[in-house]
DNA sequence: AACGTAGCCAACCGCCTACAC
DNA sequence: CGTGTAGGCGGTTGGCTACGT
């Protein structure tokens, strides 16, 4: 690898084992009180900043090497949802991991994983339905066009479309209640609709990771009786029965508490699922990518998407709640 | 075998903040 | 209070490697 040298004569680029040894020796002898003075003390032709970075990100004895565990992954996702790109703060919750390492892990893997799961990595909220549906549109089209649709099939597709519209609307209502903005992706797996849509090999997941779902529900339940935007009675009353069970059974983070991270089990109370397969018919076990999760994982513990499914699948209940919502 | 591409990660860059003077 | 400097932080780059064509 080519060695680069700055105009001031200081070396840049990758560190050699010899340089590493000199730096470690020096810090063990003298500590690193002044990073500016350290290179001279160590006999290194590097700037203090470079030495500090090398030490903190690579040579420090308490650095934890190796792949991130699932637990660490969950912590990072949840902390990022709370803190954003505060890598140094996030690193403080993960002993032995550096901010740089976490940042790289986030940018190269977690971000993509969340995107695949339909979650916007910046907001930790579901991506827009267009973002989500467009990638699978060709599959949906090719699947349906590959069949000779009978009238029954056509009607079925219409039903699918109606169900999809309902899901989108529920998602938008939820987001409106929570953030005052709309545009949200369909929060349930495609197989919810019908086999005609469910056969598409699409990366589905619950609408939000469990943690965020907890926040959503918490906010949801703490909404004032009247909607702040419309000064009308909130939709929550109409929807509350649907979520009651979920709210009672799920552990949710107390967003009013500043004790984030103090609970020893707060990261084990829920799972951040990966992806679920769109259709057991379509995907055999050995075909499933490792980032897919089973439907069983998806449905336990109960989530809002289950509640949504209840709305959608139970026609009587559906009619009742939708009547309430639309009134 | 050669080439192209994507993923990964160490290291650098530039900006911000705290602090000393 | 203004200025200079060191340290810290997040964003970005560039090289290495693995994999696909």
From TrEMBL:
InterPro entries: Homeodomain-like_sf (IPR009057), Myb_dom (IPR017930), Myb_TF_plants (IPR015495), SANT/Myb (IPR001005). CDD domains: SANT. Keywords: DNA-binding, Nucleus, Repeat, Transcription, Transcription regulation. Residues 7-59, 60-114 form the HTH myb-type domain. One of its GO terms (cellular component) is nucleus. GO terms for biological process: regulation of primary metabolic process; response to other organism. The keyword Zinc-finger does not apply. Coiled coil: none annotated. Residues 7-59, 60-110 form the Myb-like domain. It holds the Pfam family Myb_DNA-binding. It is found in: Nucleus. GO terms for molecular function: transcription cis-regulatory region binding. PROSITE patterns: HTH_MYB, MYB_LIKE. The keyword Repeat applies. PANTHER family: MYB FAMILY TRANSCRIPTION FACTOR, MYB TRANSCRIPTION FACTOR. Transcription factor. This is MYB-related transcription factor. The lineage of its organism: Eukaryota, Viridiplantae, Streptophyta, Embryophyta, Tracheophyta.
